[in-house]
Amino acid sequence: MSLTNPLGDIPISDPQAMRALAHPVRLAALSFLQRNGPATATMLAPEVGATPSVTSWHLRHLATFGLVTDADPDEVPGDKRQRWWKAAARGFRIEPGEGPEYEAAYEVLGRQLIETAREQVDTWLRDTAPRLSPEWRQAASVSNTGVWLTADELRDLDEQIDELLGPYVMRAEADRPAGAAPVRVLRHFLPS
Asked: Coil, strand, or helix at residue 157?
């Protein structure tokens, strides 16, 4: 899978890969690795709500689709005898496809991604928002904007947002300015 967009996301169009990613434990494991870097199945287990052996099985399943890989020994601290995993990219993007198998997989993954986004928002509202500084509270935003677009315009808008986010997503850790903090950007384009 090539990384062909400004966010460095892996494009996914294979229905089997989409179904694999739709499992909550796998999606949680991949998300954790994307946000936090390499980890072992034992480290991931409490984060994803599964035992280390079950987590390891799910990681191996994600690896068959190229979504996670073994971390390079230079990337990991401590015991090099343990199996360390890393995300293959910072994100993923569902690519257009056709046919009933694709449509069914797209729906399953879409539902899981929306459920995960709901949980992220609930967790943020409950745990994070109350302890933010006034500066961060004022910078955080939620919007719900209706707009009339053609399908081509919607694709263009999505690409423009990727272009805008790209430099921030791809910025090296050493280049982050003082005071930078992780920010989750959730996007939903929901045609009526």
From this structure: helix
Q: How many residues does the chain have?
A: 192
54 inside domain = yes
Tally of domains within the chain: 1
The answer to whether residue 162 sits within a structural domain is: no
Give the helix/strand (H/E) hosting 16.
helix 15-21
CATH of the domain at 53: 1.10.10.10
pLDDT of residue 3: 44
Enumerate the H helices of 64-150 as residue ranges: 100-123, 134-139
Question: Is residue 174 included in any domain, yes or no?
Answer: no
Which sign, positive or negative, has the C-alpha torsion 103, 67, 45, 181?
Answer: negative
Instruction: Please write the tens of the pLDDT for every residue from 150-175.
Output: 999 999 999 899 999 989 988 888 99
Give the model confidence (pLDDT) of 38-68 as tens digits: 999 999 999 999 999 999 999 999 999 999 9
End-to-end CA distance of the chain: 32
Is residue 111 helix, strand or coil? helix
Strands across the sheet with 84-87, in order?
39-40, 84-87, 68-70
What are the residues facing 68 on neighbouring strands? 87
Q: Is 154 helix (H, G, I), strand (E, B) or coil?
A: helix
Residues whose CB falls within 8 Å of the CB of residue 154, separated by 6 or more in sequence, listed in order: 189, 191
| Domain extent at residue 82 | 10-144
